[in-house]
Structures are given as structure tokens and as C-alpha cells.
Amino acid sequence: MSNEDGLFNVTEEHLNTGLRGIPVGTCRTSFVTPTEGVHYCGYPISELAGFSPEDVVYLLFNKELPTPAQSVAFKEHLAGRGHVPDSVAAVFHTLPKDGHPMDWLSVGIQTLGMLDTTGDWKEDALNLIARMPRLMGLLFRIREGRGADIPEDDLSASMVKRFARTLDLDGVDQDQMERILSTYLVLHMDHGGGNLSTFAGKAIASGHATVFSSISGAMNALSGPLHGRANQSCLEFVLRIGTSDPEEVEAFVRGELEAKRPVFGFGHAVLRAEDPRATVQFALGEVMCPDDENFKIIRTLREVAPRVLSENPKISNPNANVDIASGALLHYVGFKDPTYYTTFFGWARVAGIGAQIIDERTVMRGGKGTPIYRPKYIAEQQSLRHIE
Fold first, then answer.
1. What global pTM score does this model have?
2. What is the pLDDT of residues 224-270, one digit of tens each?
3. Can you say how many angstroms the Cα of residue 323 is from the centroid of all Cα atoms in its chain?
4. Which end of the chain, N or C, is surrounded by fewer C-beta atoms within 10 Å?
């Protein structure tokens, strides 16, 4: 492709459409196809689901999977960066308990940046990734009134194991929790360059705000119900259904459509088939919790909803997306409050956004980096006038 080749013909009908489908840059970490979903550095997500989160972070940052020796070294390297200053807990103690966990997460990331920013894009991104397990643990404990008295990190433990250790939950199968969380993090780490939170984080970083400020802003973008908070809404939707009986589920779905309410967990802006991330989670659920009531509901939804939704010719993709199963699996392993679910999404996405920020700041345009974002807006209903 030459510099003169056109990528997209922008017409007036594309204005005020949220930049949907309009090329604005390139992405080195992931891409999404309509039939196979997201790929990380060329690998289909279904082939990466069994890897550890640390290995996939390594892939996003280095564009190659680690060797066994590199995998061990990188896990230890991240764990060694994982210290979170006590000041973060002090800030958390001042926040309103009824504030949404995503607001807490944004504040926590911003606070980490105020306490320790190196100014090096990669160093700061790795530091934030390494500190997320403990930051998440503090967020859960303090918001729930359980205090910040948690043991020091085990530097030999994985990110997920370090997080689980901070929670110290009773009656929870730790192995199941760690497996489901590990899979969840891998599936949610990246999703191309143009999703709202990633785009927002890169836009903030383009003005040379710090990694911490940029990703804190990205978390605010992720928190909206049209973006990351959909996984919270999906589990709430499942709990409202309350039955796995196919006829009752179908009646419920039709009732929601007639009331012009969304059917959560289905459809996608790019995909035209079932999201492979949903397929992976359904397979995991069939192994982990096939008889769990919420899992049985989403299993029925997976069978019923696409058929009902496809009756509407305006719906281009009636199939299950990643949100349909993630909430049910998190609920099964002990996370009963769905308001926390988007924080897991945010934790995962820190790696993808961080890797893309590094690429845009240090690699793109021959190492010069992407300039500050400055799209053009055309004045509307602003005829020239003067004060009389």
C-alpha cells in the first residue's frame, strides 16, 4: 500500500457516529475478525486461553510468547515490582463505601502514579501491571470493611495467586478461583486499538500524560454501561431470569425485547459469530460448574436467545459475546457482588492498554511516536454573529 492509497472515504454521513469503522491508526498487539474474534499478536484467543496471564502480558509487550525460562523469569520480575505503598490504602479508607468499585480502581491507579512514576513508558506500565493484584485486593477488602491487614506478597506466586491470597476468603475452592480468574484475565487483556477504553487511554497518553493517568482515564471509559460495565449488567440480567427452563427463558427474552430493554450478553460490533471468548468460558464452565444454577441459565440463554434475536433482521449478530458467561463464572467462585465485575475487566485490560501506549509512544512512526490526538470537528449551527 502506497502513501497515496485511500483507506476510507469520509462523507457527511460518518460525522457524529463515534468514529465507528473509520481508520485512525495501526495496532501491534491485537486484531479482531468477524468470524474468529480477537487475536493477540497473531494468535487466535482460543489458542491462548490456557496460558498464564503473565505469559500473555509478555506476548503483548514483546510480540512473542516466552520460552519456559523466560516465563519463569518474567513472573518473578513482575512479582518483584508488586509492592503497593501504604498511602494507597490510606486513600482508599477516605473513599465513600457506596462509590462504584470502578471509581475506586481509577482513584487507586491515579494514586499509584502520584506516589511512584518513573517517566519511562515501559517501566511504569510494568509497575502498574505488577501492582494490580495487591491494588485489587486492597480495593475489595477496604470497600467491604475488612481492613488492609494483608500478608506481604509471595514473590514466587502468580499474579492471580497473589490476589487470591490478599482476599483470604473462606469456603472458596482456591484452585477453581485461580483457574477461572486466570482464564478471565487472558480473555479480556486486549481487543484491538479502537475500543473506547483503549482509545481513551492512548488519547490521554498522546498528550504525554503518565501511564498511570492515562490508564486511570481508560478505567473511567471502561466503567460505562455501554462498555465494560456490561458484564455486571449481564449477571444481574441472569439473576433476574432465575430459571433455566427453556420456555420460561424464551418468554423472558421476548418480554425484554417487547419492553425495548436490552438482552445482555449477545451481539457485538465486529463479530458475526459466537465470540470465541464466550466459547472458551462455556467450555470451562462445563468442566467447573455444569450444575451451577446461573451456569444452567446462561447455557439455556445461549440456545434460546440467538434464535429469538435473529427474528429481527436489523440484528446482524444475535450470538453470545464474552459477557454472557464471565459473570456466572465469577459468581460461582465466590464473587457474589456483580458491581465488582468490571474491575476484573479493568485489571485485565491494563496490560493491553499499557502495551498499546508503549507502542504509540516509542515505536510508531519510526520511533518518533504518534502525535497528540487532534481530530477535526466541523462547526454546526454556529453562524457568525456579534454582540449588539
1. 0.95
2. 999 999 889 999 999 999 999 999 999 999 999 999 999 999 998 88
3. 10
4. C
